[in-house]
Design brief:
Number of strands: 0
Number of helices: 9
Strand content: under 5%
Length: about 180
């Protein structure tokens, strides 16, 4: 059975995929999972939920495409934000694929290994306190999300999703450090 943190990773993964009819239910569940322990992240998701409830799926698709496929500052590829388009990113992609294979994770064939939704789905399969999970968060996701966050315009509804994920990762990292310190 997945932990709450693993479930939240899976839900955020869904929020960073191309909008589908299931999006409203996924947002609602993400909000429910975040509400008690991660109120700041939950409030940001609630704002996105309100927007999605009043927006057609076709308009959401347009916003998703113009946000993540057209605007390089918001590309949902942490490797791009960390390395740009060069050999280091290619090396990062190969190493990610190797980690996926080592853990029996099958990435979608239509996405690069460093797509935010793929990385989050992979994290949902790892124990939250696993070294690999912590390295992916510390060295990959947090720096990339911070760069993405800087590039978002405040009125973009996906800015709240990026900020919510960033808040959740920072808060869960703090909780993990505290529980590790207490148990030592």
């Amino acid at each position: 059975m997945k932990t709450q943190i693993q479930q939240i990773y899976r839900l955020f993964s869904a929020l960073f995929t191309y909008p589908s009819p299931e999006l409203a239910a996924e947002i609602s569940e993400c909000h429910r999972q975040l509400k008690a322990d991660y109120p700041e992240a939950a409030e940001l998701i609630n704002q996105f939920q309100t927007f999605v409830a009043s927006t057609s799926i076709s308009h959401l698709e347009e916003i998703y495409t113009s946000t993540f496929d057209v605007n390089p500052v918001c590309f949902p590829y942490p490797g791009f934000h960390l390395f740009g388009e060069n050999f280091n990113r290619a090396d990062f992609l190969v190493k990610l694929q190797q980690k996926y294979q080592e853990h029996g994770f099958i990435a979608p064939p239509n996405e690069l290994a460093d797509h935010l939704s793929v990385l989050l789905e992979f994290l949902s399969t790892l124990e939250p306190d696993a070294v690999l999970a912590q390295e992916l968060i510390e060295d990959c996701l947090l720096p990339a999300l911070e760069k993405m966050n800087e590039g978002f315009k405040a009125e973009n509804p996906y800015a709240g999703v990026v900020r919510s994920l960033l808040s959740f990762l920072q808060s869960s990292r703090q909780r993990n450090r505290v529980s590790t310190t207490i148990s030592v």
